[in-house]
Input
Amino acid sequence: MNTERAHRFGRAAHLVGISGIPSAAANDVGVIVLNAGLVHRIGPFRLNVELTRRMNASGYPTLRFDLSTLGDSGASGESLSRVQQVRADVADAMTLLGAQSGCKRFVLIGLCSGAENAHRAATSESAVAGAVFLDGYAYRSTGFKLRYYLPRLINPARLVRSVARRLHKSDKSASQPSFGVVFPPREQVRDEMAGMLERGTKMYFIYSGGASNYFNGRQQFRENYGKLAAHPGVEVERLEETDHTYILAGDRALLLGKIEHWMRQHFPPQSLT
Amino acid sequence: MMVEAEAEIPFHFGTGAKLFGLYHPAAAPTKKSVLLCPPFGQDLIRTHRLYRQLAQTLAAAGIAVMRFDYSGSGDSAGSSIDVDWNQCIADTVAAADELRVRSHCETVAAFGARLGANVAMASATHARFADLMLWDPITNAAAHIARLDAMQNALQHDTNRFLKSRPATSVADQWLGFPVSPMLRQQLLDLRVVPPDGPTLLVDSRADESTVWNEHTAPSTKTIKLPRTPWDDPERLELAILSHELIQAIATHMQEAR
Output
């Protein structure tokens, strides 16, 4: 029998999502997975399906769902900013998963825009006990520029490849619509992260090789956020070999293993403690 | 006439409730219904929005619609590696039955894009489809597989995606983000397109004009040509496929269908 259930839910019954409740739920922490960009709730290459089922197998109740106007979810009809909508949608998702599983605390997981939305929701929701940010916020630092330019200056062949790649990308971007987002100021993000850590929120930052245009070394996290990098509630990882959306099955398996390990470390299944 | 339809209903159905479906009720009592058969792999993700828009357009025009995912795809149970052509056909038959129950319509038409069109054709008899609407069905399976293999192999050295080339083993046995079993590969290689006997709308937006489809069309097939769809452009691999012309063509066809 399928352990997943389909739901239409939310304050305007406008959201669509799939809950997964393990038959022997061994945790009071639920996992909620957010949309990556415009991809519907199954995630890029079905990443969110694999992730939620892996979490279910480890005893965590899960929900993958579409935020307002994404995937199969409609608009709520309210006059809200996008940030307010995201926060209200995540609150609706926590209410649903709480009612389905009895969870009172939640971990949010998001890739790219999903990481930004996880951050927005986590700043305002005390029920968010943890968050996994996949290619989340980071800012080009002096260290970033040194790590980027020095090897190219030393190795002219690498410089040529780099220029060629940039030209190719600018050709592409000229002919395609741009949906780029502007990150909020670093100081704002740092202060919000500090507030979350003070509240006890655990945070796991995983940067792929696909994010190398703005994050190119683990030490950059310290360059960006100073002493927060050493906080025991923060873990930072860089999976240099992977691409931004984890197109290879082996890379997805690597990512899921990392997340599962982090979850077990910070939110151990109760039956095993 | 276009009327605002009720919100679609997500649910699971079939044996063990393992299949995921979304039912779009018609805006008014209806005698027409359409089952939307999804394509495979990354095509499913790229066309998700279009399938939803098509379903909403048809529902607003008074036609009941159901979308669903095959076993091992989308939100249905099973792993991507377990996708099985024969199971997809069985799932489609189950979905058509489910649509009949929900819509109270005995007459069910089917729409499918690419391999979804092939599934619609292959299941037409058992699912008792009254009408087929086929968008760029795969007419040469070997060529389709060769294209997928070539795009997958190119990933290995795609330095726009990866910082460094990846070992051959890391890209093996997958098609553009999805693991593929030897069984599915063989099933698709064995695919033979049999021209449908019944009423058929063929929507052709392929770049390759040398398609053999014309040799297969029956007198009951109506063909519409649309601008090229960039199905196999590696640089658009993660961009949605949208087509208002396609939606319009299907809606018009369904409204004209008896």
Observations:
- Chain A has eight helices and eight strands.
- The longest strand of chain A covers residues 105-111.
- The domain at 4-140+185-272 of chain A is CATH 3.40.50.1820 (Rossmann fold).
